């Protein structure tokens, strides 16, 4: 990946942020079974920073609530994301950041799939295959340089 | 179900992912390795209990992806994401570093000794397969060939049970067979049918059939048609056997299949999958000689581990004894009990 050149999409459209979740009384009640839902998955990834712009993936509409599916019986989570432009060279890095954030925060029982929304990128098949090869993802996250870049994306900035 | 998969023992081997388990040729030691950069050797203590007999910690600086035994059992090789292959030699109860093989550009994914003991093969992310030749006088390995036929990451290697023929599985969705031809190593055939990454393959006891598993959630059985076969299947090269997919096992796995093994003692096929399951398949008896082969699921455990099952290994001496390892950091030993059908 080449990080040296300037941003590719110089003037991205900026979208509104979702309102913060309102806390319910039952959220503090340990007797209430409260399974992880789509909104919680979304909250984990919406604050991920774009690698190029001082904006979050939510503000760039790269991720939205509709792109998330969770099945607590099957322990599967599917995240679909939309690169801002169809030839975005950062698409793999963005997908890797989403994967890393979920890997570091979700219980290990979940099987996570991260994919580009169909038709949103010229190399979607290649990128999807790479993002879902756990051996390559593991090796990438063992690489100090790449891990530092991913960590800069997934650590929330002061907003 | 016509068989039962009974859990015998569980070892909490690591806090991290265990990538590989491999029995030595006499079935007395099980080697394991993983993301914690440690190789462990497990052996019997008493009749039933298995314990960690020794630990090798100084081999690699990154995850150890796989370990393999030489056929004599006196050597162990390990492949690391640090681009290195280490060869360990038995010294009494311990294994000491014999040599380190360097040459791959980045992550080495697999290593395998040939049955003849003449060769060691390695493969990795740099899309290449390296063949190393053993030199007895110098007690070292020298590179005999660098094969760049695959167009992507090479995941797994398997030597033929009798001949110096090597099978390699790749992210390019193919399996390739390599043979030595007039001192040169060459790709003898390419097996194309899987729709995604081929994670692993194994020969049957005769070496005439191969089983493979893939990210496409299927298992495939391949048959080698030799020159002048009676079925009349022509080999494109005119020299090397042609491998044809004769059976696809689909609909059982819900995630990628990371490993498949064909037991040389029982003929059973076992799979390790990203859906946490271990499944056992048995070949149906054929009604007619020329009917295509078919396999049925005879046993399974869909909660074999808490996370992905990465590799399995049939004990080569004790029929039905199976080892498995997982992302959950555990290694398990299983016994497969077959019931008469």
TrEMBL record, chain A:
Gene3D superfamilies: 6.10.250.1280, Fe-S cluster assembly (FSCA). GO terms for cellular component: cytosolic [4Fe-4S] assembly targeting complex. The keyword Cytoplasm does not apply. One of its GO terms (biological process) is chromosome segregation. Keywords: Chromosome partition. Residues 39-115 form the MIP18 family-like domain. Belongs to the MIP18 family. This is MIP18 family-like domain-containing protein.
TrEMBL record, chain B:
Pfam families: WD40. The keyword Glycoprotein does not apply. GO terms for biological process: iron-sulfur cluster assembly. GO terms for cellular component: cytosolic [4Fe-4S] assembly targeting complex. SMART domains: WD40. InterPro entries: CIAO1/Cia1, WD40/YVTN_repeat-like_dom_sf, WD40_PAC1, WD40_repeat_dom_sf, WD40_rpt. WD repeats lie at residues 11-42, 57-89, 101-142, 147-178, 191-222, 302-341. Signal peptide: none annotated. Keywords: Repeat, WD repeat. Key component of the cytosolic iron-sulfur protein assembly (CIA) complex, a multiprotein complex that mediates the incorporation of iron-sulfur cluster into extramitochondrial Fe/S proteins. As a CIA complex component, interacts specifically with CIAO2A or CIAO2B and MMS19 to assist different branches of iron-sulfur protein assembly, depending of its interactors. The complex CIAO1:CIAO2B:MMS19 binds to and facilitates the assembly of most cytosolic-nuclear Fe/S proteins. CIAO1:CIAO2A specifically matures ACO1 and stabilizes IREB2. Belongs to the WD repeat CIA1 family. PANTHER family: CYTOSOLIC IRON-SULFUR PROTEIN ASSEMBLY PROTEIN CIAO1-RELATED (PTHR19920:SF0), WD40 PROTEIN CIAO1 (PTHR19920). This is Probable cytosolic iron-sulfur protein assembly protein CIAO1 homolog.
